[in-house]
Amino acid sequence: MRNVYVLGTGMVKFGRYPDRDIPDLGGEAALMALNDAGIGIKDVEFMACGNLYQANGMVGQRILKEIGLTGIPVVNVANACATGSTAFREAYVAVASGMYEIAMAVGVEQMGKRGLLGGIGGGGSDPAYATEGRLGSGLMPAVFAQAGLEHMRKYGTTLEHFAQISVKSHKHATRNPYAQYRNEVSLADVLNARMVAYPNTLYMCCPTGDGAAAAIVVSEAKLKQLAGGRKRPRVAASILTTDPWTDRDLTLPDVNTLTKQAAKKAYDTAGIGPKDIALTELHDCFATAEVLHYENLMLCGEGEAGKFIDEGGGKHPDLGGKAPVNVSGGLLSKGHPLGATGVANLCEVAWHLTEDPRAKERQVPNAKAGMAHVIGLASACTINILTM
Fold first, then answer.
1. How far apart are CA 227 and CA 216, in angstroms?
2. pLDDT digits (tens, 9 = 90+) for 16-61
3. Which of 50, 116, 267, 354 is the most interior residue, by most CB within 10 Å?
4. Of the candidates 48, 69, 68, 53, which has an alpha carbon nearest to the alpha carbon of residue 21?
5. Which one is catalytic: 49, 81, 205, 347?
6. Is 241 part of any domain?
């Protein structure tokens, strides 16, 4: 496989756009990425488009109707919350394999206030397999609440630990003009907010909304030709895993195992370790998820997430800490338009590695390696590591 580089990125501010549509949002992000890369749509040889709610709607082709129909191959991707990051991986593989020199990934979603994914329990419409109403709930707030409660029982993690995640993410988002919500909240605000699914209160749950992001990936030869001396991050690892067989998966989602396996593969492929990662954009759909993924991504030891938060006055995962996490504000504040999330995470990492002005207010200093992680139940996990 050849070296692949991120030449250009673009992102539409996450929010709600009732007067716009999917091709409009996706097209804007694509044009931003093309402009950042210094190329036109005629230069792109392959496109992968991630969208979930209109998965059968040929979204990639509709975006090209907005920005230029050139006859290139388009792959439309749907992979739960990992939809956008899987589209990025498709573009990466297209170039890494040697089949194409320039590829584009676009992630886009228009959710409005639509939410509460799940409820079937992973068994489709067959009541013999549905866990809804039997083993808690299959709705996402409940699934990740159950996972958080298990961590509390096993390791003594507290409600305050989870609440501090929300405080951190909201604080980070005040520095991100692309975030859906940019309001700072106190620990008391988070703890006293309406309980959605214990231990997750309202501020510990990601919002729904609309958004789009895009990335242009190129071969090393094209980078030398097009970058004009600008340094661009290399895709050091692009990993996709699914759940291995476990007893648990017969009844309840396992939000940990596939991430642990993906993380090991990603570090091995990139030839670096967790201590080399300057920043991580991980899938904090709920505050409980972020705590679990500290351990799954090996940012701290097994069962040590609470200690990781407490040490240094809770500053380790903060901007300025030893392992900054979700300096964009994360899904909790930046927002989570499903198809766009994975590409947006990669945009954030790329901006820090290149000291792009779009990350200026929250720049992680001297960042040489960053990681973007997304998990989609049931189940897909992507981990992409970018390095300079």
1. 12
2. 999 999 999 999 999 999 999 999 999 999 999 999 999 999 999 9
3. 50
4. 53
5. 81
6. yes
